[in-house]
Amino acid sequence: MKTLFKLAAIAAAFGLAPAAASGQAPAPAADQAAPAAAAAPAADAASTAGNSATPAAPALLTPEAGIGQPDGRAALQTQFTPIGEEAAWFHNKILMTLIIAISIFVLILLLIVIVRFRRGANPTPTRTAHNTVLEVIWTLVPVIILVLIAIPSIRLLAHQYSPPRADLTVKVTGNQWFWEYEYPDNGIHIVSNMLTDEQARARHEPRQLGVDNRLVVPAGAVVKVIVTSNDVIHSWGVPGFWVKIDAVPGRLNETWFKVDRPGVYYGVCYELCGARHGFMPIAVEVLPRDQFAQWVASQGGHMAGAATTPEAAAAAAPAETANTVATAAEPATTNQAETR
Ligand SMILES: [Cu+2]
User: Bias category Low complexity: which stretches (predicted)?
Assistant: First the structure.
């Protein structure tokens, strides 16, 4: 019985800790102290692949207010992954209902005690010390409540930790104070730095959330995210995806997400990692599959392995040729043939 109670309590603790909405420390960011490595990979890709061979990247998606970014409401951000939807339902419908009901119940009990048993109304208090029925009830009822919380809570945990087969793998590396993204199956490496206020304004991006190079993923794909760090502990999190995981030096952590809706979704570093901890935001751009293939080609990468389905590859081919001369499509097809 005791162990059951403990288990229920642990499960409740997990369930009762929702991901916080991304808070940003207000501080000037005009002086861009981030490492100069910023735009290097894109430039490299362009020069090595030759000017004519690198197709143009698809146009940058413009972020939408209230989607994938804080909008001032005192609630969870709108969720865009199956896990996020399940977790938000659990938090909003189950936990909040329960918390409000219990708070009101206790408040009513307190008011009854204050009014009925005050000294004026009740000068000689009862000397009752034990009431077996009452004690059994006030032990059993909380246990039942905790067990009822534990069921959806443990189910959510199980869903989070049993991801479907990944369509795309991305390795995320935290650095003081920027993120690096690698696509091991596509041969792409990106360095992602925060935009200055002026750059963010010019690109219509939220202040201190916009980055120069976004993490780009295809819509509807299961993205496996492997997270590590080069220096201190960071934490990679995107509130709209219900994803948050520590980036620990010398260790690979894994999480995943699947977003069907194309758009731009923001996150931040969630572990105090040094002076510019508040200035290493995350921007994830979810593109339709054919545009993702176009983006991969624009980065000098190739669609390979589990990153694409035959239909997606077929859809991608016209997109590539439309943007470039015929030679651009050739390396992509040879690479695909090699990896199969
Ligand atoms: Cu950090």
Answer: 307-334
